Amino acid sequence: MQHRAAALLLCLVAAGTAPARAARPAASAALTAGAAAGLPVGAPAPWFCHNLDCPKFTVVNTTDDYEVRYYEAGAWVSTDVEAYAYALGVSKGFQRLYQYIDGANHAAVKIPMTAPVRTLISAAAGPFCKSNFTISFFVPFAFQKDGAPKPNNPDVYLDHSPAFTAFVAQSGGFVMDDFSVTRMAKRLTDALDRDEQPYNADTFFFAGYDPPFRLMGRHNEVWVVAEEETGAQTS
Questions:
Q1: What does UniProt give as the signal peptide span (predicted)?
Q2: Integer Cα distance of 141 and 161 in angstroms
Q3: Listed residue (179, 232, 204, 209) closest to 36, CA to CA
Q4: Distance between CA 142 and CA 67 in Å, rounded?
Q5: What pTM was estimated for this model as a whole?
Q6: Residue 110 CB partners (closer than 8 Å, separation 6+)
Q7: What is the CATH number of the domain that holds 15?
Q8: pLDDT band at 7 (very low <50, low <70, confident <90, very high)
Q9: Is residue 199's pLDDT more than 50?
Q10: CA atoms in the 13 A half-sphere facing the CB of 99
């Protein structure tokens, strides 16, 4: 895989002409196999969600370096940002999404905050090595079935994510800049290459679960989407 996922923020790989919206995870044979095996999908939310609604997942396998998780399908609200730096892109996207949950929607209702703030990162084709960021909030469970209200801002959109399997690396502390995010991604893809796990090397997700003012008990994740069934097998 040549560590392409980890190199995105460093612009070491030309990704070609980037689409208007980066590709979302697609359902795979791994998901079907996991569901057929009777995995206990949707266990209680983990501690790092801090009593907020967060996407349901099942831990399929665990290694010293990462977890293999099966994520259920779910709705997110998202916005796309092109920026030179992770922090700038996420800040701009967060403000758009926060305005949406604060009432800038067709129902003019306030929507509860959820976790994590998820960012899909992909390399852009433009000059000076910009990256494309898709920042997303998970739609609260109360709106998952009947649908969340439509955003007022045309740059914000409701986004359905199919079920998918991901390799997930976890870290504490503050991970809020290009170097820290990229380092987490590279460590994960190094481990996946070592284990010969097939994965989508063109994009990855960063998931942050904490506001900036939380000093202790912070939790950060990098998600790399699995491409084939081998990544979801239990040990």
A1: 1-22
A2: 14
A3: 232
A4: 28
A5: 0.81
A6: 101, 102, 103
A7: 3.20.80.10
A8: very low
A9: yes
A10: 14
Which two three-digit tokens encode residue 6? Answer: 């980890």
Total Cβ atoms within 10 A of residue 183: 16
What is the CB neighbour count within 10 angstroms for residue 6?
A: 25
The span from the CA of 169 to the CA of 100, in Å, is 30
The model's confidence at residue 9, banded by pLDDT at 50, 70 and 90, is very low
Q: Which residues lie below 8 Å from residue 108, measured CB to CB, with a gap of 6+?
A: none
Helices (H), the chain: 4-7, 29-36, 86-101, 141-144, 178-194
Query: Average pLDDT over the chain, rounded to whole?
Result: 82
Token pair, residue 28, equals 């795979």
Find where tokens 């084709």 sit.
Answer: 125
pLDDT at 11: 54
Sign of the CA dihedral 174, 175, 176, 177? positive
Residue 225: the pLDDT is 97
Expressed as residue numbers, the domain containing 57 is 4-232
Total tally of structural domains belonging to the chain: 1
Nearest to 103 by CA among 138, 147, 152: 152
The arithmetic mean of pLDDT across residues 157-167, rounded, is 96
Q: How far is CA 169 from CA 63, 138, 187, 206, 219, in A?
A: 10, 20, 8, 10, 11
Q: How far apart are CA 74 and CA 80, in angstroms?
A: 19
Looking at per-residue confidence, does 174 or 98 come out higher?
98
